[in-house]
Amino acid sequence: MQKQRDAKMPSNRARISKTASEHGKWSLYAKICLTNEWRGTIPKIGVVMEIKITCKGADLLPLDAIEEFQGGLKKRTKRDIDLIIKSIEKYGFSFPFFVWNGSGHNYCLDGHGRIQALAEMRRRGVSLPLFPVDYIEAADEAEAKQKLLRINSQYGKMTVDSVMEFTEGLMVDWDELELIGNIKIKEEENDSVYTKIIKAPIYKITGEKPTLIELCDTSKAEKIIQEVKRAQISDDEKIFLINAATRHYIFNYAKIAEYYAHASKDMQALMEKSALVIIDFKKAIELGYVKLINKLADEYYTEYEREKEDDI
Questions:
Q1: For residue 144, which phi and psi values (nearest 5 degrees)?
Q2: Closest C-alpha to 34, from 50, 5, 14, 59
Q3: CB 103 within 8 A of CB 67
Q4: I need a surface site. Which of 139, 232, 236, 267 has the fewest CB within 10 A?
Q5: Stretch 7-19: mean pLDDT, rounded?
């Protein structure tokens, strides 16, 4: 009875050919189906959610042809995976996998988090395309592991000022990013030694006090607001769009720092509360401007207290 049922069931490739030819979409659809054939499922045309591929690589591979290589080196929470999924949904698949082809296996050197995120997206019903990969050369597994460690190493650090300057004019969702591990911390005399004490900028008077108009460029926002006011839309829609126009404000943090140095104590306190300046890293964490996972926060403060004791 089972053999009779099996004989009537067409193969995956036969179903691919038939379905794709019916819809006249062999090239694209066949690639999607052949990818899904790794797990024995055929997506339905019209309901397939697509992942945008926004990069190019040396080759294209289905997800199941790429094997994880780092084992338990790096742990990720459900939140980490959800953030990666959110990034893929928003910006597409933006960076090729780095792959070492060892003994006929495509071992992943960079992209393990995306492998987990894509597997979760597939579990939720998203159909996966072929993914760009770049091949990394390594003589053996030991050298491949050395290269993986270097991919995960961070040889540079960001400062609060450099992040603020780089993101000036951008609307950044800080909840999507985990930048704290990259924030530059105080250097000792030996450049290779770092402490967990983050050196906040010191705001001193270096010139004349700027005017308030100089601190923020509102010209683009004001232009948009005028257009909104003239538009034939409801009053509620106007209120919403006028509020949204403030995202185009561009703050001049160099002049803000100079103004802060000249300002009264009350004004300075309010500027700190609005994160226009950061003089206390711990306070910035408490106010929610710098986000740490609980475990990392505990480790930070534990190490910080130890170093303070060592300095005594």
A1: -60, -40
A2: 14
A3: no
A4: 232
A5: 41
Tokens standing for residue 171: 């609307």
The string of DSSP letters for 51-87 reads: PPB----SEEE-GGGEE--STTSS---HHHHHHHHHH
What is the C-alpha separation between 217 and 231, in angstroms, rounded?
24
Separation CA 225–CA 242 (nearest Å): 6
Residue type at position 275: A
pLDDT at 310: 55
CA dist 35 to 27, 28, 58, 115, Å? 13, 11, 18, 14
Give the chain's length: 312
* 49 and 125 Cβ atoms separated by less than 8 Å: yes
Measure the CA–CA gap between 87 and 51, rounded to whole angstroms. Answer: 11
Of 128, 131, 120, the C-alpha closest to 49 is 128
3-state helix, strand, coil in the chain (%, to 5): 50, 10, 40
Q: What distance in Å separates the CA atoms of residue 244 and residue 236, rounded to the nearest whole number? A: 12
Structure tokens at 92: 């597409």
Kindly list the strands in the beta sheet with 105-110, ordered across the sheet, starting from the edge strand earlier in the chain. 59-61, 131-135, 97-102, 105-110, 66-67
Chain segment 125-148, per-residue pLDDT in tens = 999 999 999 999 999 999 999 999
